[in-house]
Amino acid sequence: MEKQPNQVLWNLVFAAILLLLGLGIYKSSQAIDYIWRWDRIPQYIVYQARDELRAEFDGTIESNDKGQLILVNDIDDSERAVIVNYQEFVIAEGDLIFEGDLLAVNYQWQSGPIATGLWMTIKLSLVSIVFAILLGSLAGLARISPNPALRHFATLYVELVRGTPLLVQIFIVYFFLGTVLDLERFTAGVVALSVFTGAYVAEIIRAGIESISRGQMEAGRSLGMSRGKTMRYVILPQAFKRVLPPLAGQFINLIKDSSLVSVISLTDLTKAGREVVSVTFSPFEVWFSVAFLYLILTASLSLLVRRLEVRYAVRD
């Protein structure tokens, strides 16, 4: 029986390596004489917006029988403004108010540019993943179709897309197709990412289907099932389990590749990071935060796919 490694020892080795890496990063930051300003970052993720109420005319602050503060016009006392539903009052009864003076303030939480960019990245990635699955599935099935026209078109699509950079494809979609079809930036970004990822999904699905023994198709046909039904009920369920890991890797790449849409002025997480850097002059803090948010997205997708793998493995 093969001897198992000492779990405690190797976990300690792992922790020691992480500690050394952290120490190396800390020493590197000290060597470049950089002043860290992490306190600047939270306000660009979420912040309390200030909603101010200012006087529209000159007057005096009075109170009514309900205890509410009222601004009464000094010239026409029939003109009154009741000041209610505010969290903070900066005036009191008897104060003399001039037009434009601050009366009360409300605070409400709002998303900053980094959070807004994160939401754009999530939305862009999710929509692109859906269309990439549809396009890739069709192209993958066409790649193994007995129809030569479908097979050749699918092969041409896969080779053209995989043989050109995504950045170039984004430019072509936005500046050429976008001009011809009047596409918005978001739509152009979805089209470019979906077409690019769909080509890789097609190859993953083709490989998954071809990894299933041909005897499965023959068995289905011998039972009186059509080729389409055999593919749907016998081949594809088995292939789906096998292609989950490579599909997860491809979708993780899609999330990271979505950062390229910033070149067409779509404010995703990367572009939001650049804008915050230009304001805060804190590039290290901003880019570490952006990288961490990307890591959360990709790790969440990896965890979801892992749960799917375990679920279908149990069913086996």
From TrEMBL:
First-listed, main subcellular location of the protein, grouped into a coarse class: membrane
UniProt entry keywords in alphabetical sequence: Amino-acid transport, Cell membrane, Membrane, Transmembrane, Transmembrane helix, Transport
UniProt xrefs under Pfam families: BPD_transp_1
Single GO term (MF): transmembrane transporter activity
GO cellular component, one term: ATP-binding cassette (ABC) transporter complex
Compartment annotation: Cell inner membrane; Cell membrane
Membrane topology, as annotated: Multi-pass membrane protein
Domain of life per record: Bacteria
Transmembrane segment boundaries: 118-142, 154-177, 286-305
Domain ABC transmembrane type-1: residue ranges: 118-305
CDD domains listed in its UniProt record: TM_PBP2
InterPro entries, A to Z: AA_ABC_transptr_permease_3TM (IPR010065), ArtM/GltK/GlnP/TcyL/YhdX-like (IPR043429), MetI-like (IPR000515), MetI-like_sf (IPR035906)
Any one GO biological process: amino acid transport
Family recorded in the similarity comment: Belongs to the binding-protein-dependent transport system permease family. HisMQ subfamily.
PANTHER family named in the record: GLUTAMINE TRANSPORT SYSTEM PERMEASE PROTEIN GLNP, MEMBRANE COMPONENT OF AMINO ACID ABC TRANSPORTER
Function of the molecule: Part of the binding-protein-dependent transport system for glutamine; probably responsible for the translocation of the substrate across the membrane.
NCBIfam families membership: HEQRo_perm_3TM (TIGR01726)
Protein name per Swiss-Prot or TrEMBL: Putative glutamine transport system permease protein GlnP
Provenance organism: Endozoicomonas elysicola
